[in-house]
């Protein structure tokens, strides 16, 4: 019979050690607006800066890393999934033009290993620092008997702010607007249940070397999600581009067409030209292993496009040039149309949004 929390499998002392190991990394995300440091019951954020807004709108987002954590666990590499978490959350917030203010994370694990938790949170903190987001708190919970000793799940939530008259979205999109694609860093953090099934069916382990990946499979698959927030906020502050950017779309679960359709007004459509880019090798290799075409996975993977911008066509070139100076490769893939059109082959809206209609046309380059 278990007579103590420790005998039941929960080690509170290990939790305290994990906090000590992560404190420095978390503190680096704190500016003067964060009060109280690490370890309080609630994270405190001084909202005085919002007094300078005419009509501040708070934007919130929540997400997790998904089954990509299974690869991190199998490969025993935990320093990149934190960036995946931050990317999934704050790059959703910036879609509406909001600047992220703060984020909290949540880790559920079977056994609390302080060094592993610190590694995970260190990745969260580095990504928060890169995106100007304060990591104000979090929770690590041991769930013995529910999760295996080496298993964990990672999730979080964040809050940002945008001036009401700077809000991006379908209400600003116009017929003729140019659609600019921004390159992804790889799979990001979506579609990993399919990735894992493809590898399992082919008898390929995460530690196996594949020539196409130039090393271990797991290492290639753990390439962290590209962070767009800092670059997009700078773009929105650029005098040329500021008023010309009408919408962003974060390409996550559901793939390319469905996510772009969410930010187009009802009654509009767009055709995304596949010939304007070549899907990165990770998508081609996985498709080859499963004996499918990359086009079969357009509703699951980003295939090399992690974010879209919908912009005034007169400044599309300037927007792409600005993104290049900010380290984001981009290219024009299509335009927004309206009027009568047979939409049978188009993806129309997603996740409850009655938006526009999008389809991919042509053949991929290369």
* Unreliable segments of 5+ consecutive residues: none
What name does the CATH topology of the largest domain carry? Phosphoribosyl-aminoimidazole Synthetase, Chain A, domain 2
* Helical content band: 25-40%
CATH C-level class of the largest domain:
Alpha Beta
Return the domain count: 2
Distance N to C terminus: 64 Å
- Main beta sheet: strand number and arrangement? 7 strands, mixed
Summed over residues and divided by their number, the pLDDT gives a mean of 92
Give a verbal description of the structure.
The structure is a single chain. With 366 residues, the chain is of the alpha+beta class. It has two domains: 12-166, PurM-like, N-terminal domain (60s Ribosomal Protein L30, Chain: A, 2-Layer Sandwich); 170-361, Alpha-Beta Complex (Phosphoribosyl-aminoimidazole Synthetase, Chain A, domain 2). The protein is 28% helix and 26% strand. The protein is built from ten helices and 15 strands. The chain has helices at residues 12-27, 68-75, 81-93, 114-131, 192-201, 217-221, 229-236, 255-261, 281-289, 316-325, and strands spanning 34-35, 44-45, 56-64, 99-109, 134-142, 152-163, 178-183, 209-210, 215-216, 245-250, 268-273, 305-311, 330-338, 347-350, 353-361. The chain has a seven-stranded mixed sheet. Strands 3-6-4-5 form a four-stranded mixed sheet, with helices on one face. Strand 8 (209-210) and strand 9 (215-216) form a beta hairpin. Helix 1 runs parallel beside helix 4. The longest helix is centred in the middle third of the chain and has 18 residues, at 114-131. The protein is globular and about 65 Å long. The N and C termini lie far apart (64 Å). The relative contact order is 0.15. The mean pLDDT is 92. It is found in: Cytoplasm. This is Phosphoribosylformylglycinamidine cyclo-ligase. Its EC number is 6.3.3.1. Residues 174-339 form the PurM-like C-terminal domain. Residues 57-162 form the PurM-like N-terminal domain.
